[in-house]
Design a protein that fits this description.
The complex is a heterodimer. Chain A is mainly α. Helices cover about 75% and strands about 0% of the residues of chain A. Chain B is an alpha/beta fold. In chain B, a hairpin with a 2-residue loop joins strand 9 and strand 10. The chains are: A mainly alpha, B alpha/beta.
Chain lengths: ~260, ~240
């Protein structure tokens, strides 16, 4: 083995390892809650408004609930605690002493987190669309499945960074990153929002549902008119950069024994 | 097999001062040999082992395994070394079989070769009755054996263990040392750090005593222990002598 093959094998091994660790009763219960939550909100809305909202209203609600809320929370409870746990509890040394181990720790955990969160997101989406009795369900599911994957990939990479930079406060730091980067910088109509996942998600939503001509001029400031492949490419580039930085930090990091044996 | 030469490792502490954790340590471990690295807390044992395990880079000097330098070619060292840290870090929810399988895949093992390797490890470490039980439900001794198995999954010629018996009772420690003795007899080079001298006094072929980051005594038991003495006395004499200097 050598080179990329080493890294791929090690990444898949760590991903399998992390997915196995996620299959616990509390985690599965949390996942079930994540799947049910959007459907429960959709049901509550149906009961409250008494008339069927149109497809665009459902789409806005689905956007807020699934690629934003469910994916964000899913990544917060999988990506950063998993890497941070490994670093904090000292279990990472057993991975780091293997060929390609340090980068596999970041990449494998990222893959596991994206697979776990995307699965929950897509299931939540399908259940919510069915429960809501929404029109053109297949089209909605296709567009939002893409958004779920893009959200998971981009934000999974975003949360890798706080996990390796400050493992002892990874969750707090990740929430801070989510608020400041995604929900503050992401809504600034300036160059800084080009590096956020939320801009790409909004832009993909507008294109996916053909809203380009429907949205008011003011809202056009917070979406990007570039085609969908540019939005997806930007998220991939962002994810590669963030994961590379996280790996470089972890590869160079030295962990002196806190207590000499 | 394991060679440490003039190894120096300094840390910068929180107040900016330099901590000399290891300050010119040299020793070697040959194939089929078990060497005890002895020292009090803070002597520099864990730092030395972590440099060998490629977890730390040396400030000066070299550490190598099977001819591969830990700084220049850490990946080659990782393929040739099994490392058991002071904390077992065994995931509670996975069984020994799952843990060995996961770590075997980290070394590129898969399919029948991996299954065969896992079966051999389970048998060699006496984990047959609990191989499919979550590690969180295993005893301390069984968990430590899982930790050793994880380090052996790629069948490395050299094995480095940091305080492997510190959390074990007398029987667990004896069982683990029996396993290490068997590995030594099978030709592995084994370096084991401990401050529980009585446990390894009759097990190791040679001893290296470090204190304040320096080697203060080294040799076989007979070379270190005078007539009628024991290893503990020899250890205290070496440490006291170093402090007096």
């Amino acid at each position: 083995m050598n080179g990329w093959r080493d890294t791929l094998d090690a990444t898949l091994a760590v991903a399998g390892f992390q997915l196995a660790r996620l299959r616990t009763a509390p985690r599965l219960a949390l996942a079930a809650l994540g799947v049910a939550f959007p459907a429960l909100v959709v049901l509550a809305v149906r009961r409250a408004v008494r008339v069927d909202p149109d497809r665009d209203v459902w789409a806005v609600l689905l956007y807020a609930l699934v690629p934003e809320a469910v994916c964000m929370l899913g990544l917060l409870v999988t990506m950063c605690p998993a890497v941070a746990d490994e670093l904090e509890r000292g279990t990472w040394v057993h991975v780091a002493t293997r060929p390609g181990g340090r980068r596999a720790l970041v990449l494998g955990t990222f893959v596991a987190s994206v697979v776990w969160t995307s699965t929950i997101g897509v299931l939540a989406l399908v259940v919510a669309v069915i429960v809501g009795g929404m029109s053109e369900p297949l089209g909605l599911i296709l567009v939002f499945t893409g958004l779920v994957v893009v959200s998971s990939v981009g934000r999974g990479a975003l949360f890798a960074l706080p996990a390796v930079v400050m493992p002892s406060r990874a969750l707090v730091a990740s929430v801070g990153v989510a608020v400041v980067v995604e929900y503050l910088a992401g809504f600034l109509p300036a160059i800084v929002n080009q590096a956020t996942v939320s801009l790409r998600l909004r832009s993909l939503l507008v294109q996916g549902l053909d809203w380009q001509k429907k949205i008011p001029a003011q809202l056009k400031l917070i979406v990007d008119p570039q085609p969908a492949w540019v939005q997806c490419g930007a998220v991939v580039v962002l994810a590669v950069v963030l994961l590379t930085v996280a790996i470089v930090i972890l590869e160079r990091r030295q962990f002196p024994p806190s207590e000499e044996g | 097999m394991i060679v440490v030469r003039d190894l120096v490792k300094h840390y910068r502490s929180g107040d900016g001062s330099v901590v000399r954790a290891v300050d010119g340590v040299s020793f070697a471990v040959e194939p089929g040999e078990m060497v005890g690295l002895l020292g009090a807390n803070g002597a520099g044992k864990t730092t030395t082992l972590r440099v060998l395990a490629t977890l730390l880079t040396p400030t000066a000097g070299t550490a190598s395994v099977a001819g591969c330098d830990a700084s220049a070619d850490p990946v080659a060292v990782r393929r040739r070394l099994g490392y058991v840290s002071a904390t077992t870090g065994v995931p509670d929810r996975l069984s020994p079989r799952e843990i060995f399988g996961s770590f075997g895949r980290l070394h590129g093992l898969d399919g029948a070769a991996l299954a065969d390797r896992v079966d051999r490890l389970v048998a060699a470490l006496g984990l047959g009755s609990c191989a499919d039980r979550p590690a969180g439900r295993l005893s301390s001794g069984q968990r430590q054996r899982v930790s050793v198995g994880r380090a052996l999954v790629h069948d490395p010629p050299a094995l480095v263990l940091d305080e492997p018996t510190s959390a074990l009772d007398v029987i667990g420690a004896r069982d683990l040392l029996d396993i290490l003795t068997g590995l030594r007899d099978a030709g592995h080079a084994i370096l084991v750090s401990t401050h529980r001298l009585h446990e390894i006094e009759r097990r190791c072929d040679r001893f290296v005593v470090i204190h304040g980051g320096r080697v203060v005594a080294a040799g076989t038991r007979d070379e270190l222990v005078g007539p009628g003495g024991d290893l503990e006395q020899a250890f205290f004499a070496a440490v006291s002598g170093a402090e007096a200097r």
